[in-house]
Amino acid sequence: MSQTAWGIIGAARIAREQVIPAIRRADAGEVVAVSSASGKAGPYAEELAIARAHDSHEALLADPDVESVYIALPNGHHAEWIQRAARAGKHVLCEKPIVLGPAELDAVEAAAAEAGVVVEEAFMYRHHPQLRVVRDLLADGTLGDLVALEARLHFTLDRVAGAGDLRLDPALGGGSLLDVGCYPVDLFGLLTGAEPDGVAASAVRDEPGGVDTRFAGVLRYGDVLSTFDASFDSLFRGTATIIGTRGSLTLADVFRADRTDGIGALVLETEEGTRELRPEGDQYAAQAAAFARLVRAGRRDEEHWRLTRYTTRTLDRLAAAARPDR
């Protein structure tokens, strides 16, 4: 089993509830340190049985026992700390979206190449076996040629309880497109293997100058029409439908299969009838294990990096298309 020594940059809930337990389930190495700039590192480390707590991210990057870092900071801080980590010789798994635009992605990629470290984006859904099933059904012709893709990801963000939530701060890369809409966009790139030829988009904002709290987009990949919507204003829903000339495939929870104990729920409909598929996997643990393998091999996942480029550039185009001043 490939392993690496992990440091957690940012005492975030996703690290506590998902990523750190997944590293341990996957036996992908030991979490040896955590850092927080807001004084949370000590209690966080004690709660999660992490050996060392650093009161600054700089101190964690200077820790000689840390080989790799997981970055769980606000979106607007990702590019800066990926580059700092790379210059410190640390490999990086960074929470999605990895950066806020193509220019930041170029800078991050250059820093990683210069330092000779592995940098990967933490889109955990890519690692669930249900995505392999989908790709196999497309490759073997079961669905025929792609006609349309549909996806949505919504959840309820309590504006009162979440007052001051980073996802509502435009200066930190907040908004529903970057927080949840990025998943459908990434999925479309994964399934088509391309960037869209054209995009159109519309957004709803709680207040002028605020972040988008509801977002919808239409993307054209050659002859394939793709639509998605995302918001902070609905009960959780994370579905996708793939429509081909010979059949369709519906995924009940394509992005968060961890919510259903790792069991995917796919419904395949063709002229031969309807069939249910239930691939099972641990997407967060698979992500941690895959990253540790890349670190030990000393190379990045080129397919995932190509997809990260597609997604970053497409999100930038969608945001521009939905600007209020257009």
From TrEMBL:
Domain of life, source organism: Bacteria
One family name in Pfam for this protein: GFO_IDH_MocA_C3
One of the record's GO molecular function terms: oxidoreductase activity
Record domain GFO/IDH/MocA-like oxidoreductase: where: 132-249
Gfo/Idh/MocA-like oxidoreductase N-terminal domain: residues covered: 6-120
InterPro entries in the cross-refs: Gfo/Idh/MocA-like_OxRdtase_N, Gfo/Idh/MocA_domain, GFO_IDH_MocA-like_dom, NAD(P)-bd_dom_sf
Signal sequence segment: none
SUPFAM superfamilies linked: Glyceraldehyde-3-phosphate dehydrogenase-like, C-terminal domain, NAD(P)-binding Rossmann-fold domains
Record Gene3D superfamilies: Dihydrodipicolinate Reductase, domain 2, NAD(P)-binding Rossmann-like Domain
Keywords: NAD, Oxidoreductase
Family stated for the protein in its record: Belongs to the Gfo/Idh/MocA family.
Protein's UniProt name: Putative dehydrogenase
Species this protein is from: Ornithinicoccus hortensis
